[in-house]
Design brief:
The chain is 0% helix and 48% strand. Strands 34, 35, 36, 37, 40, 41, 42, 43, 44 and 45 form a 10-stranded mixed sheet that branches. It has a 6-stranded antiparallel sheet with strand order 30-31-32-33-38-39, with no helix packed on it.
Length: 774
């Protein structure tokens, strides 16, 4: 059959077509350990690893996108061959070869957090969990040999590892363990091969923090002091360092004839004869120190990156202030906002904003203003005002006109602490508008402890504010808008109490959304779902007795079909106005949400339903029933580049074609097929061009399609070759996939082909495909 095609065709250009569906945004300034190779610093951080050249300023970052198994890294070492070895909290060990940009991964220690490495000849020893692992380098690769954890005492963690006097040494929370390092002649899985040194053997304590070998002596840094051991295994307690909890030793490195020692936030110069002298005090703890040669050294700090001396230079990377991300949005101007606080937590990290060129962190002080740093909810209203609710600090609003206002009970001025990776400013807020008496504090010992947990603007131009455990009993507050902002006339505000004999704390609101009829559905922390009809002020409830998995509701959202989706701590429910349904979790993500705990629900512009679960990201496709085959898609760390399976929040921005995924390990940005559904065909593209059949099972992908598109493939003469549709599972979301086969399942011949995309409204887009068949 031939078709008459009257469509403006795009010319064929040769280009690669790499679909990078994921990006990772992490904080890399919490540095746990560093190593030096060819005068470059390699840093293991809670957001991945990076390489920094102090002379050129060049930085190369590595996250899960670039090849890491896990971004939360604790340890790093470079061997004599230039292989970068890193390990993290999940127990995975990664081997990176910069020469050919290749990675090897080992999961043999998975579940046992990696704390430290040491290399002796071709043996790699790894402090991991409650034991020590060993890898042997053979034929250019490290192969797992064994994991030793049978010790004469029960320990909780191995904190450090070193080689000294032909023995392996482990710093633990119960003392210093040692055994012969030659595993070919000694069976060190036998507890009798191990010896232990504790405070009974002249150590200043039992919890070992770090080990170092300097001048044929083993230096032992502990929670309560410093000790040295000679090759005859005699321990000397260094009394001129000091003893007790104030004399913790976190890091040790030699420099010239002295030793640098990190003691919490203090850096000391130390000699055996003269004792210690303070060099400087940092704003955050010292995790590691390395000698750069001559008198130069670099210090790794928690939260503050690297510090170089004698240059007195601080090095930090741009990024969010931390990796735990619980709530995120993208505003009308394209800025990303993120918070880290959550229900009943007191994480005083404020909120972060990603502007066009950098991340900006916001915190507050002094006194009760600090509670505003417990930011937990973000909301942009239709007037482009950004509302920030906090756990104890009331509300802050970035108004569309650029002003900042506050709703809380503090009667004294505060300061906004504004910081970036290279700047800090304390801004006096005494001139900011502060509105009192609109919120009610929770009945706690702290005065004016005002908790705000939800915002929602209705179709009648009112803003609804959900509160936690207010003393006045009104969990809902509502105010009309006046000239682009809410009324600040107290007489215009209205108040609602959710009362049915249950404790006020249980009725506190966690989430809310409106249906088509203006009914407000409020999820509560312990009393199920309340449905409030603002017209007659009648309240009805949905509880476990009606079919909810639990009365602990984490998120509520109404989709474009009017279905109320209810995310609970124990499962996903839906409500159609008559019945409550249960949707069983499926760990494969193919027939239900990935996990039962539903942390957040987002309904996008095209009615795809996105679920943040404790097992990953789940999507229920638009126009699909939750019971249909192929209705669900799930993304986990096993099948995608999402940062963590613990997903806390979601924001889908149809304008940019990106979904922001808030996780416990950072912010994942997803630009896959369901995030890139478009309202028109202006951005349609396809590739790779040329499309080479028979090469690595390659497929031709057409992206940026409209919802429910169909794609047809034609010869240059208009003969229909193949149809791609959602029914055939060859179109999903915004993408169509062609495998180069015709209707009969045979590969097409080389030549130029045409693709045409159609939707139900008659819109079209087209392009050319240059096919080369090998």
């Amino acid at each position: 059959m031939k078709w008459m095609i009257i469509i403006c065709l795009l010319p064929v250009f040769a280009f690669s077509f790499d679909l990078d569906d994921w990006r990772s945004i992490t904080n890399m300034n919490d540095v746990y350990q560093i190593d030096i190779y060819n005068q470059e610093v390699w840093a293991a951080t809670t957001g991945g690893i990076y390489k920094y050249n102090q002379n050129s300023g060049e930085v190369q970052k590595f996250t899960n996108i670039e090849g890491l198994s896990s971004t939360y890294t604790n340890a790093i070492i470079i061997d004599a061959h230039g292989i970068v070895i890193t390990g993290g909290i999940d127990g995975m060990v990664d081997f990176y070869n910069p020469a050919d940009n290749s990675w090897d991964h080992s999961f043999k220690l998975q579940g046992n957090p990696i704390a430290d490495f040491v290399i002796g000849n071709d043996s790699l020893w790894i402090a991991s969990g409650k034991g020590v692992g060993i890898f042997i380098r053979e034929d250019g690769h490290y192969e797992f040999r064994d994991y030793f954890h049978n010790f004469p005492v029960i320990i909780n963690e191995v904190t450090s590892v070193h080689l000294f006097a032909n023995r392996i040494w482990l710093g633990t929370d119960r003392g210093l363990l040692t055994a012969p390092s030659d595993i070919n002649t000694h069976t060190i899985n036998n507890p009798e091969e191990w010896s232990i040194f504790t405070s009974q053997n002249n150590l200043p304590g039992d919890k070992v923090q770090t080990l170092a070998v300097i001048n044929d002596m083993l230096w032992i840094g502990l929670n309560d002091g410093l000790a040295l051991m000679d090759e005859q295994l005699t321990i000397t307690k260094m009394n001129n360092w000091g003893e007790g909890s104030a004399y913790t030793v976190k890091a040790i490195t030699p420099i010239n004839d002295e030793v640098l020692i990190g003691n919490n936030r203090q850096l000391y110069r130390y000699t055996i004869n003269s004792g210690r002298s303070l060099i400087r005090t940092f704003d955050s703890n010292i995790n590691d120190i390395k000698n750069l040669g001559n008198s130069d050294y670099v210090v790794a700090n928690s939260t503050d990156g690297l510090f170089f001396s004698p240059a007195q230079k601080r090095f930090k990377l741009d990024g969010p202030s931390q990796n735990i991300t619980r709530f995120t949005i993208r505003d009308h101007s394209g800025q990303i906002w993120a918070t880290a606080n959550m229900f009943k937590k007191n994480i005083q990290t404020g909120f972060d904003i990603k502007t066009a060129d950098r991340w900006i962190s916001h915190q507050f002080s002094p006194g009760r203003w600090i509670e505003l740093s417990c930011s937990n909810i973000l909301y942009e209203d239709r007037y482009n005002n950004i509302w920030i609710g906090s756990w104890g600090g009331g509300i802050m609003v970035f108004k569309a006109d650029g002003d900042t206002v506050y709703f809380h009970g503090y009667d004294y001025p505060g300061n906004a602490l504004i910081s970036t990776f290279d700047s800090f400013e304390s801004r006096d807020q005494s001139n900011a508008e502060v509105y009192h008496n609109f919120l009610s504090p929770a009945p706690t010992d702290a005065a004016n402890y005002e908790v705000v947990t939800a915002f929602r603007q209705d179709e009648h131009n009112n803003l609804w504010i959900g509160c936690y455990y207010p003393a006045d009993g009104y969990q809902l507050r509502v105010t009309p808008y006046r000239n682009g902002f809410v009324s600040i006339n107290e007489n215009d505000w209205d108040y609602y109490s959710l009362s049915n004999g249950i404790a006020d704390e249980d009725r506190s609101i966690s989430s809310m959304d409106f249906d088509f009829f203006g009914v407000l559905y409020c999820g509560t922390y312990g009393d199920g779902v309340y449905a409030l009809n603002p017209d007659n002020k009648k309240i009805s409830t949905l509880t476990i007795d009606d079919g909810l998995y639990t009365n602990s509701i984490l998120s509520v959202a109404v989709d474009k079909d009017g279905i109320v989706w209810i995310g609970t701590a124990a499962g996903l429910n839906s409500y159609d106005g008559l019945n409550v349904y249960k949707h069983t979790a499926d760990e494969t993500g193919q027939s239900g949400p990935l996990e039962n705990r539903i942390n957040f629900i987002f309904i996008d512009e095209f009615n795809n339903r996105w679920f943040a679960t404790s097992g990953g990201l789940s999507i229920l496709k638009a126009d699909h029933s939750p019971w249909e085959t192929n209705a669900w898609v799930g993304y986990t760390t096993s099948n995608s580049k999402i940062l963590s399976n613990e997903v806390n929040g979601i924001y889908v921005d149809s304008k940019s074609g990106e979904a922001l995924i808030a996780t416990e390990r950072g912010l994942s940005v997803f630009s896959g097929s369901f995030a890139q559904i478009r309202s028109d065909y202006n951005q349609v593209s396809g590739g790779p061009n040329p499309f080479i059949l028979g090469e690595h099972q390659q497929k031709f992908t057409i992206t940026n399609l409209k919802k429910n598109s169909m794609v047809k493939i034609f010869t240059i003469n208009g003969v229909l070759v193949r149809e791609l549709s959602t029914e055939s599972d060859l179109v999903e979301g915004s993408r169509a996939i062609w495998d180069g086969l015709d209707f009969l399942g045979k590969p097409v011949s080389s030549g130029v082909y045409l693709y045409a995309a159609f939707d139900e409204e008659g819109s079209t887009a087209a392009g050319k495909i240059a096919v080369i068949r090998k």
